[in-house]
Amino acid sequence: MAQLVAKAYAEALMEAAVELGQLEEIRRDLGFVADTLAENPDFNELFLAPSMTEQDKKSAMEEVFAKNVSKDVMSFIKVLIDKGRESELKEIRKRFEVMADESQGLVKGRARTSIEMTEQQLKALEEKLSKQAGKKVSLVNIVDESIIAGVVIEIGDRMIDGSVRKKLAQIKEELRLVVV
């Protein structure tokens, strides 16, 4: 249920951002608010406190963010407070980021490897995947020694497992099925 709510708010914000021609500004400002709350647990707790009135929450947010974020993002935050949905901000931001990336033909993913990839390796992999996907692919390299060697690519809900760990598991399964 919460994810559906976050998706609806993210879609509404995305529509407004595109209509206003301020996609990047709204993305930046929404990220700034979400990151500030995440980095300041006491302030975040205050923002989410049910004992604090809507007006007090709005005043606190206005005082902290009004000089640093657009009026549109401030209005959006106030709507979340009015609707009692301030706890959804993190998920709304996440979904908004994905929608904004998609609207610009960008997909983000992870490349898990047993050792850190060089910048050139990462760029070459991004270029190859971009050609296959027909969209610009941006990857973050995550070091995961359990992979042994190779790479596991995760983009959205898709995974390409080119790891030695997987190949060994396949061989083990094939050997298990061999009748002796």
How would you characterize this protein structure?
This protein is of the alpha+beta class and 180 residues long. The chain folds into two domains: 2-102, Peroxidase, domain 1 (Orthogonal Bundle); 107-177, no CATH class. The chain has eight helices and four strands; from the N terminus they run H-H-H-H-H-H-E-H-E-E-E-H. The termini are far apart. The model has no long low-confidence stretch (mean pLDDT 91). Belongs to the ATPase delta chain family. Residues 108-135 form a coiled coil. GO terms for molecular function: proton-transporting ATP synthase activity, rotational mechanism. This is ATP synthase subunit delta.
Outline the secondary-structure elements.
Elements: H1 2-20, H2 23-39, H3 41-48, H4 54-65, H5 71-82, H6 89-103, E1 106-113, H7 119-133, E2 136-143, E3 150-155, E4 158-163, H8 164-177
Parallel strand pairs: 1-2
Antiparallel strand pairs: 1-3, 3-4
Helix pairs in contact: 1-2, 1-6, 2-3, 2-6, 4-5
Top keywords for this entry?
single chain, 180 residues, alpha+beta, Peroxidase, domain 1, 2 domains, four-stranded mixed sheet, 16% strand
